[in-house]
Structures are given as structure tokens and as C-alpha cells.
Amino acid sequence: MVCNQYDVIVVGGGIAGCFAAATAADEGIDVVQLERKPRERGGFIACGDAIKSPRDPSNYPGPIDMDAIADDESVLVDNSIDRIEYWDEELGVRKVLPYENGSNVVDRYEFGQRLLEQAADLGVDQHYDTVVNDVVQDGRVTGVEAVRDGEPVTYECDVLIDAAGAQSILQDMVDFESLDTPGSPTFEIPHYTHFGSAYREIIETEEPVAYHDAIVGKPLEELGYIWYFPRTPTQINVGLGFQMNKEPIPLNDRLRRDVEDRPEYQGAAVAEKFDGKNKLGSAIALRRPLDSMVAPGYLAVGGAAGTTHPITGKGIRGAAYSGYSAGRAAVQAIEDGDVSEHGLWEHNRWLYREHGEAAKLASWDAYNVAASSIDVNVLRALTALLPEKELREIVGTSTEVDDLKSKLLVGAGVVRNFVAEYREDTFDTLDVSKTELYEAIRTLKKTRDHVAAYERQYEAYPTDRSGFESWLSERDRIDREFYDDLGLSSDEQKY
Ligand SMILES: Cc1cc2nc3c(=O)[nH]c(=O)nc-3n(C[C@H](O)[C@H](O)[C@H](O)COP(=O)(O)OP(=O)(O)OC[C@H]3O[C@@H](n4cnc5c(N)ncnc54)[C@H](O)[C@@H]3O)c2cc1C
């Protein structure tokens, strides 16, 4: 059997994998990136393709040249998106919000290919057609076993970076309990209900769509959502997503039902659809970032670490900045000769304390929990009554207001609009009572106070491994208080 030795192995040729591998290789470390897809399919992934501000270095830190990617016309085919639209067609609701400057819808395949090319140019060895099927460990993770071009191969390393995406299979392979950790391992495998599943197709219309310069979102049953994201005026990324804690539904059938009813898609060709080879659906992480993303010899990034919440626009950039963080933490640990949990802790510290997005995502996840506890029709009625100003702040369409704390405005805004826009038929159509609406507002207002407690706690995230247990026990206490206050039974509790 062939055996390869590297300082760092990165499993995954997606965004997180490219940012991690490029960052480590740029520091002169030997890095191999393993990807199960062939070279020509590398970077292809089912995605809504909506990307936030590619030129903002805080979203995409490290040596990958995002300006070159943003300038590449094969990636940003069209550059005209300037607003978000929320539609609830059954209720006749259409809300229009400005979209963050420079954000756009990319050709995800070309984007993925450019990232892989840049990682290779920075010195990363890339092994395609390589499926990792086991992890090797001895007190710490020491490598992986894979099948490359049909042949078994062993790879050894100092640090393994798990960039295998949401529901990473590597996390089933590592025996975290047997690794050398002081006390219990800090790494905890996420539960399947923390994920959603999403599916999309690329549709070519005969005429430009009316919303060619907007990204459009609509609510669906069971807290699902559907999107129409124009890549060009006639090439639309159309998809839908559901949470895995709800009843499973056949995603492509549900999408077809929606598309077939739309006049603009009559006679349209489906440019990319499921053909048994091209996977157009995948899991998405809909949870807060993992409490700890490290184990001895092992770091998790992107979808595998829960730093990617696509519904709040962090799917792509959350993969990018966490990949960068892991690349730099791996280099530092290798140089220090300490790849234990303690040595790799910098990855957690940087994400939670220095960059800070992980702390925000984790704190604001309380709003996602609260929203899941409210009936979907009540949420639709709330949104229908919500003034656009407040809605804009909730979805965070500019960096300054990218603050879900504004969700507290839900209460104030809805009540104000109650008089101005109250329509009995909204409540009749949705079969929602005013009492249910007020109850939902109370839930969201209560959540605001808990979010403040979470924020204080995440601001105090331990800067080294030794403070983790006491920090976690206080965070768990905040969880319990929150669930009790919302009256959620143990079955309804997310974590
Ligand atoms: C349908 C859909 C729509 C989405 N829309 C958006 C959107 O509009 N905007 C947004 O920001 N985010 C969106 N997201 C989320 C976004 O795509 C993810 O957050 C992002 O792709 C995560 O990147 P990643 O590098 O962590 O994982 P991935 O992109 O999933 O990459 C993981 C890679 O690992 C490889 N791999 C896995 N297992 C192995 C193995 N055993 N051996 C070798 N290789 C392996 C895979 O082939 C893959 O290439 C969407 C997701 C889905 C599914």
C-alpha cells in the first residue's frame, strides 16, 4: 500500500478546504488536499450561489485572492443584484429590501475551480478521485486511509483538517473518546436534526425574468423556504430547503410543483438537474458553531464545524473564514510541536474571540430556536405585518445592520403595522388568531434577553483549553434557562 506523509491533510475540495489548505501551504507547510470528485468536477456543489461581498477581506481572509475571483467574468456572470425580495404569494405579500453592496450570485462551479487553482498555485498537492474511508489515530489523529483511483492509500500527518462538509463522514470515523484529552473530549458530534437538506436546479428561461436584479425568497410549509436567485437575467438558480427535524419531503418533486406553476418558467430548459451523477442536493448545517472545533491532531471547518448558516448568508463566507482559521492554527501548532487540543485551541479562540463571527452565530441561534417553536403560519403572518425597515434589519442587508439582535424589532414593528396594514384575510387564509400572534411576539421578545446572555457568555469564550469545562457549564445553564422560559419540552430542545 502506498503511504504518503504530509504536515497537514485537508479532506475536502470545497470552500473551507481550499481556504485551509491555501493558508497552511502559504506558510511553507506540506499540505495535501484530498477530494473524492475528479479534477474536472472539483468545486462543483449544489448551492444557491448567493455570496456576500467577495471583496471584503474580513469575510475571506488569507492568501486566496478574492479580488481576482470577483473580477473574473466566468465567476460573476452578471453583477446587477441590488435587492432582496420576500414573497408570500398566497397572502399577496411582496417586500423589497436593498441588498448589500458587492454581494452577488456566482457561477459556483467556476468559483470552486478558481479556488482550487489558487490553492494549487500556493503549493497545495491536490489528490482527486480520492475517497477517505477511515481515520487513523493513536492518542491523536495521525492520518487517513483512502482509495485513490481505485487503489488503497494511507496518508500520515501532524494535523488533519476535516473540510468534508455538513454531516462530515470523518466525524463518524474518529473515536473522539479514545484520544488523549485532559478530561472529556471537547469535540462533540452534531445531531442529525441540526442539519437541513437543500436542493437546487439551474433553469434557463426564454425571456429575462422580472426579478433579474433581485434575489427572491419565499416561505414553504414546515419551515421550509424556496429561492429564485438569478445568475443572469435568463439563468436562474432555483432551489428549496427544509430542516431535518421536520417530516422529510421529496425535494425535487416539491421544487417541480412550484416551478411548473410559474409563467416565467414555462418552456424553460433545466440546465443543471439531477442526473444520478451531479448531486444537486446536500445537507446544510443549521446549528450554532460547534462548542469546540478541535481534537488532538484534528480540526473541523466549514459545514463540518457548523460555522456556515446559509439562511443568514454565511454558508460560503463561514466556510472561508473558518478554513483560514484552521490553516493558520495548524501551522502554529506544528511549529510549536504541540498538536494536542491545547496546541490547536487557537482555531477556537480566533473564531470565537478574535474574528468573532462564530460567537455571533452561536448567540443568535437562539432566534432560530425560537422561530422553530412558532407555528410556520404564525411566522408568515408576523412577516406579512412587519414593516420593510424592520425586515431589512432582520435579514441584515448591510454590514452595519447585520445584527439579528434587530429581531427584537419584530415585536415593535408588527404592533405598529397592526393598525396600518391589518388585514383580516391574512389571518383567515393562514388560520392564525390574534392571540397566537401576540404569543409569538412575546416569545421573540423574551428571546432577546437570552441572546444578550449568550452574547456575554460567548464574549468570554476561553482563550485556552483549560477554561473550557467551566465555560461550557455556564453556557449550558443559559441554554436551560432559555428552554425553560420558552416552555420547550426536552423533545423540542435543540441542544
Ligand atoms: C442546495 C444548497 C444551497 C445553498 N445555498 C447557499 C447560498 O446561496 N449561499 C451560501 O452562502 N451558502 C449556501 N449553501 C451552503 C454552502 O454551500 C455551504 O455552507 C458550503 O458549501 C460549505 O463549504 P464546505 O467547504 O464546508 O463544504 P462542502 O462545500 O460541502 O465541501 C466538502 C467537500 O468534501 C468532499 N468530501 C466529503 N467527504 C469526502 C471523503 N470521504 N473523501 C474525500 N472528499 C470528501 C466533498 O466532495 C466536497 O467537495 C447552500 C447549500 C446547499 C446544499
UniProtKB/TrEMBL annotation:
The keyword 4Fe-4S does not apply. GO terms for molecular function: oxidoreductase activity, acting on the CH-CH group of donors, NAD or NADP as acceptor. Pfam families: FAD_oxidored, GGR_cat. Residues 199-247 form the Digeranylgeranylglycerophospholipid reductase catalytic domain. GO terms for biological process: phospholipid biosynthetic process. InterPro entries: FAD/NAD-bd_sf, Geranylgeranyl_Rdtase_fam, Geranylgeranyl_reductase, GGR_cat. Keywords: FAD, Flavoprotein, Lipid biosynthesis, Lipid metabolism, Oxidoreductase, Phospholipid biosynthesis, Phospholipid metabolism. This is Geranylgeranyl reductase family. It comes from Natronobacterium texcoconense.
